[in-house]
Write a structure and sequence with these properties.
This protein has about 280 residues and is an alpha+beta fold. The chain folds into 3 domains: about 50 residues; about 110 residues, Uridine Diphospho-n-acetylenolpyruvylglucosamine Reductase, domain 3 (2-Layer Sandwich); about 110 residues, Enolase-like, domain 1 (2-Layer Sandwich). It is about 35% helix and about 25% strand. The strands form 3 sheets. The protein has a 5-stranded antiparallel beta sheet. The protein binds flavin-adenine dinucleotide. Flavin-adenine dinucleotide (FAD) binds next to β3, α5 and β9.
C-alpha cells in the first residue's frame, strides 16, 4: 500500500522484499521515526519517498529460545526491556533498552532504528549488543546475510546503502551482564559515556564502550589486561578501575554534552561501578 501525503509518499509493504525494493529505489526506511522526525533540526534532508516497516509481519516479534534470542528489527525499546527482564545473562540489553531516552521515545523507537542511525554516537543498545556478541541479520539484493555486530558497525555506512536490517540474534551463552551509563544533567539527556560488560560461561569478560567515540566498540585492551584474572569471581572493582585507567585507548569525541577528555576520564569510574554490578548479577555480593 502507498499513502500519498502532501509532500511525501509513504509505502507500507507487507514483505521484507517489498521494503528492500523500495529502499533500492531510493526510499528512506522509516521505523519508529524518532530520529528521522528530527532531521530538520539537524539540517538534514530526507527523501520524498519513505518506506515503513510497520506492516511487515514478524519484524515486531521476539523469540526467546534456550540457546538464542531473536529480536525483530521493529521491536521497540519498551517491548525489548519487558521481554528480557529477568533473563540471566541478558541484563545489559534489558537495562540498555529500559534506560535509553524517555518513556515516550522508548514506546516507539525500534531496535533497527537504534542500530541503523549512523551519526548517533550515544546509542545504548550498541555497547550492550557488542558485549553480548550479537549477530545482525541483514537482507540485501544478494539475499540474507548474518554478521557479527562489530563487523556491521565497522562498515555500517556501506552496509546501509542497500540493506535492510531484519533482526538481531543474541546467543545465550552469558552468565551475567551489566550496562552502565553516565548522563550529565538529567534523565533524557544523551549519556556522556556508556559501558556494557558481560561474562560468558567460560568466564571470559567482554567490555564495550559507547558515546565516547563516534561509534561504539569493544574495549579489547581492558579485556586482555583482565584475561589472567578471568577465573576470579567477582572482579575486583579497584583493580578493574586501575586497569581501565592504564588501558584507556579511547579518543574522546567533543560534543554538546561533554568534551572528549571528560568522556575518556569517566571510564575507570564506570568500570569500577560495572565490576560491582556484575558481581551483584553473579550473585556474589
Ligand atoms: C529526545 C531523544 C532522546 C534520546 N535518547 C537516547 C538515549 O539516551 N539512548 C539511545 O540509545 N537513544 C536515544 N535516542 C535515540 C533513539 O533511540 C533513536 O531515535 C532511535 O533508536 C531510532 O529508532 P527509530 O525506530 O525511531 O528509527 P527511525 O528514526 O525511524 O530511523 C533511524 C534511522 O535508521 C534507519 N533505519 C531504521 N530501521 C532500519 C532498518 N531496519 N534497516 C535499515 N535502516 C533502518 C532509518 O532509515 C534512519 O536512517 C533519543 C532520541 C530522542 C529523540
Amino acid at each position: 500500500m502507498t499513502v500519498d501525503l502532501e509532500e511525501r509518499s509513504l509505502m507500507l509493504p507487507e514483505t521484507v522484499e517489498g521494503a528492500l525494493a523500495a529502499r533500492l529505489d531510493g526510499a528512506t526506511i522509516l521505523a519508529g521515526g524518532t530520529w528521522l522526525m528530527r532531521a530538520p533540526l539537524r539540517r538534514e534532508s530526507i527523501t520524498r519517498a519513505l518506506v515503513s516497516l510497520q506492516a511487515i509481519p514478524g519484524l515486531g516479534d521476539i523469540a526467546i529460545g534456550t540457546d538464542r534470542v531473536r529480536i525483530g528489527a521493529s521491536v521497540t525499546h519498551e517491548a525489548l526491556a519487558r521481554s528480557l527482564a529477568g533473563i540471566a545473562g541478558l541484563e545489559a540489553v534489558a537495562t540498555a533498552a529500559s534506560g535509553a531516552a524517555n518513556p515516550a521515545i522508548r514506546r516507539v523507537a525500534t531496535v533497527g532504528g537504534n542500530l541503523c542511525t549512523r551519526d548517533f554516537a550515544a546509542a545504548d543498545l550498541l555497547p550492550a549488543f557488542l558485549a553480548t556478541e550479537a549477530i545482525v541479520e541483514l537482507r540485501t539484493r544478494a539475499g540474507a546475510e548474518q554478521l557479527p555486530i562489530a563487523v556491521f558497525l565497522d562498515d555500517r555506512a556501506r552496509y546501509l546503502t542497500d540493506t535492510l536490517l531484519v533482526s538481531v540474534i543474541l546467543p545465550r551463552n552469558l552468565v551475567a551482564s551489566t550496562h552502565m551509563r553516565l548522563p550529565l544533567r538529567k534523565a533524557g539527556d544523551y549519556p556522556v559515556a556508556i559501558l556494557s560488560v558481560a561474562r560468558d560461561r567460560d568466564r571470559r569478560l567482554r567490555f564495550a564502550v559507547g558515546s565516547v567515540e563516534p561509534v561504539a566498540r569493544r574495549w579489547h585492551a581492558l579485556e586482555e589486561a583482565l584475561a589472567p584474572d578471568r577465573g576470579d569471581m567477582p572482579l575486583d572493582p579497584e583493580r578493574t578501575a586501575a586497569l581501565a585507567a592504564s588501558c584507556n585507548d579511547f579518543k574522546g569525541r567533543d560534543g554538546p554534552e561533554a568534551d572528549g577528555w571528560y568522556r575518556r576520564q569517566v571510564l575507570p569510574a564506570l568500570a569500577r561501578r560495572a565490576a560491582v554490578a556484575l558481581a551483584r548479577q553473579e550473585g556474589i555480593r
